[in-house]
């Protein structure tokens, strides 16, 4: 049985910020596309410069804010986990190695090869 004693705060924060920002961008892009398809005003005014610029800038601006908030949440969450795991106990996991016969580990050929002559 293995136990997770602590997380690296910076690493956890970076991963959390990346994942949350990626999910936001996919969701926001999907919603903007749906809005443009279904909204009559958006369809009529799509090619006006101020309309699509505002939408693009707002989606990217909010993505930056979401990334910053995700970074802070990841850092705070891992710091809280580290404090609790230090006082009590971390998450325990029972990990079992199984032999999967369909997986063949690549063979490494470490023998030096003679130099080729031209």
How is the secondary structure organized here?
Elements (H helix, E strand, L loop, with lengths): L1 E3 L4 H30 L1 H5 L4 H39 L3 E3 L25
Antiparallel strand pairs: 1-2
Helix pairs in contact: 1-3
Textual characterization of the structure:
The protein has helices at residues 9-38, 40-44, 49-87; strands at 2-4, 91-93. The protein starts with a strand and ends in a 25-residue tail after the last strand. Helix 1 (9-38) packs antiparallel against helix 3 (49-87). A two-stranded antiparallel ribbon has the order 1-2. It has one domain. The chain is mainly alpha-helical and 118 residues long.
The topology string of helices and strands comes to: EHHHE
Query: Any idea what the radius of gyration is?
Result: 25 Å
Strand content: 5-15%
For the secondary structure, the number of strands is 2
- Residues in helices, as a percent range: 55-70%
Total of domains? 1
Strand order of the largest sheet: 1-2
Specify the number of helices: 3
Short description:
63% of the residues lie in helices and 5% in strands.
Question: What keywords describe this structure?
Answer:
118 residues, mainly alpha, 63% helix, extended
């Amino acid at each position: 049985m293995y136990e997770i004693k602590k997380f690296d705060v910076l690493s956890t924060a970076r991963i959390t910020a990346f994942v949350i920002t990626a999910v936001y961008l996919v969701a926001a892009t999907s919603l903007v596309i749906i809005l443009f398809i279904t909204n009559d005003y958006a369809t009529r005014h799509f090619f006006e410069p101020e309309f699509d610029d505002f939408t693009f800038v707002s989606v990217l601006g909010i993505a930056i804010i979401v990334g910053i908030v995700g970074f802070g949440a990841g850092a705070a969450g891992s710091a809280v986990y580290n404090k609790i795991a230090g006082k009590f106990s971390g998450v325990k996991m029972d990990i079992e190695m199984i032999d999967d016969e369909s997986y063949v580990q690549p063979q490494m050929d470490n023998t030096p090869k003679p130099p080729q002559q031209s």
